[in-house]
Specification:
Elements (H helix, E strand, L loop, with lengths): L1 E6 L4 E8 L2 E8 L4 H15 L9 E5 L5 H18 L3 E4 L1 H12 L5 E9 L2 E10 L2 E11 L1 H10 L7 E4 L3 H6 L19 H10 L14 H11 L1
Parallel strand pairs: 1-4, 4-5, 6-9
Antiparallel strand pairs: 1-2, 2-3, 6-7, 7-8
Helix pairs in contact: 1-2
């Protein structure tokens, strides 16, 4: 299987290529330069692998949450490629990508806490339970104040288990009470850690058409829900 994955939801811009069993990737910390970098990075990976875009079996998209601009850049790039090539898209969240990298770095983990700095005094948060080498999301991704996030984590009664952490929001959660004994094993979501998840999605047929490959903002969805409840 040949898959291209894209991730630009944070300050980091990354693309990765699965060429049968070989994974290659590029990753650069480059705030506000993702739009100008992502296509050249894609072209360079394909050129080095002696592949054309038409050789791809599909696209893997990190839908967010994260920077609103960043997730729009990734989504629009993935949509454009998928439409032009008539390919399906596998959608993976940035929080899942973070969790998968952390779990890859420590397979003894029982739970993974993923968090991204959401600015405005909030963090994006997701907690995963490891079951049979799979990461299962506990409740839903959310945008939340750090103190409320830590209270939520405590309410899950997981802190006596083997917990590892990932993402730029972890330092913020530490200030809110999360103990430093829970190791932070990844900082930014990376495209290469989306590929295994995306491959499984393609094998299961859990993919979408290009027009359905939409960004996951979380904050907008939470705000809209609150307005509707008023």
């Amino acid at each position: 299987m040949k898959l291209l994955s894209l991730e630009t939801s944070t300050e980091n811009c990354s693309v990765a290529l699965l060429n049968d069993d070989v994974v290659t990737y590029q990753s650069k910390l480059a705030p506000q330069k993702h739009a100008e970098m992502i296509i050249p990075m894609i072209d360079e990976l394909l050129t080095k692998a002696n592949l054309s875009k038409n050789d791809l079996d599909g696209i893997a998209l990190s839908v967010g949450p994260g920077s609103f601009t960043g997730v729009r850049i990734t989504a629009s790039t993935a949509q454009g490629l998928a439409l032009a090539l008539n390919k399906k898209v596998a959608c993976v969240t940035s929080l899942m990508a973070l969790a998968y990298e952390a779990y890859t770095n420590d397979k003894t983990a029982e739970y993974v806490i993923s968090s991204i700095d959401a600015r405005m005094g909030e963090v994006y948060l997701a907690v995963y339970k490891v079951e049979n080498n799979n990461l299962n999301l506990i409740q839903s991704e959310r945008v939340i104040k750090p103190e409320e996030a830590f209270a939520f984590i405590k309410s899950l009664n997981i802190l006596d288990s083997k917990v590892v952490c990932s993402g730029s929001g972890i330092e913020i959660l530490r200030k809110a009470g999360l103990d430093e004994k829970y190791a932070k094993l990844s900082s930014f979501p990376q495209a290469q850690f989306i590929l295994d998840i995306a491959k499984d999605c393609f094998l299961k047929g859990d993919t979408v058409d290009a027009f359905e490959a939409l960004p996951l903002y979380v904050r907008n969805e939470v705000t809209w829900k609150k307005v509707n409840e008023q």
